[in-house]
Amino acid sequence: MGKIDEAINYQKTGIEIREKIVDKPGLVIANLNLGQLYLLKKEPTLAKQYLNAAVVYAEQTENNKLIASAYAGMSTYEIIGTKNYKNALQWQTKAISLYEKIDDKQSLSRLYVSAGNLANNLSDTTTSISYYNKAL
Q1: What is the pTM for the complete model shown?
Q2: What is the DSSP secondary structure assignment for residue 136, as one 8-state letter?
Q3: What's the pLDDT tens digit per position in 49-108?
Q4: By the 8 A CB rule, do 114 and 134 touch?
Q5: How far is residue 56's CA from residue 45's CA, in Å, rounded to a whole number?
Q6: Ordered DSSP codes for 24-58
Q7: 68 in Cβ contact with 101 (< 8 Å)
Q8: CA–CA separation, 112 vs 92, rounded Å?
Q9: Contact 122, 103 (CB under 8 A)
Q10: 3-state SS, one letter per residue, for 74-130
Q11: In angstroms, rounded to a whole number, what is the distance separating the alpha carbons of residues 134 and 111?
């Protein structure tokens, strides 16, 4: 068994425990981790399943940082799993809005650059430049 498979097993065990104790923030993080691991394994169907679960749990927490992280995770899925840059940008825009509310400058800087790249891939120069300028 490889390191990624081992990590997947640990995360699944974590999910089982978190479900028993109803730890929704922990479920968000574990599902995000599993989604990312399945993206690394090039298994987009499983990645999407866990990333969707992360969004559902995150939205139940009313924790903007967790919700934004889940939205960013779905954006990553759209970039890597489907190469649907339009959907990826929509998820990132939702994440950016929440990170702006909580003034998370580090996450915003990273997402502004990424959103600029996505807009550039969609040939939307105006939006791309706007995001790049915000990252400065």
Answers
A1: 0.94
A2: -
A3: 999 999 999 999 999 999 999 999 999 999 999 999 999 999 999 999 999 999 999 999
A4: no
A5: 17
A6: HHHHHHHHHHHHHHHHHTT-HHHHHHHHHHHHHHH
A7: no
A8: 9
A9: no
A10: HHHHHHHHHCCHHHHHHHHHHHHHHHHHHCCHHHHHHHHHHHHHHHHHCCCHHHHHH
A11: 10
Burial class (CB within 10 angstroms; exposed 0-12, middle 13-18, buried 19+) of 120: middle
Name 45's Cβ contacts closer than 8 Å, sequence gap at least 6: none
For 57-75, give the secondary structure using H, E and C.
Answer: HHHHHCCHHHHHHHHHHHH
**131 vs 129: CA distance, rounded Å:** 5
Q: CB neighbours (10 Å) of residue 14?
A: 18
Question: How far apart (Å, rounded) are the C-alpha atoms in residues 24 and 6?
Answer: 23
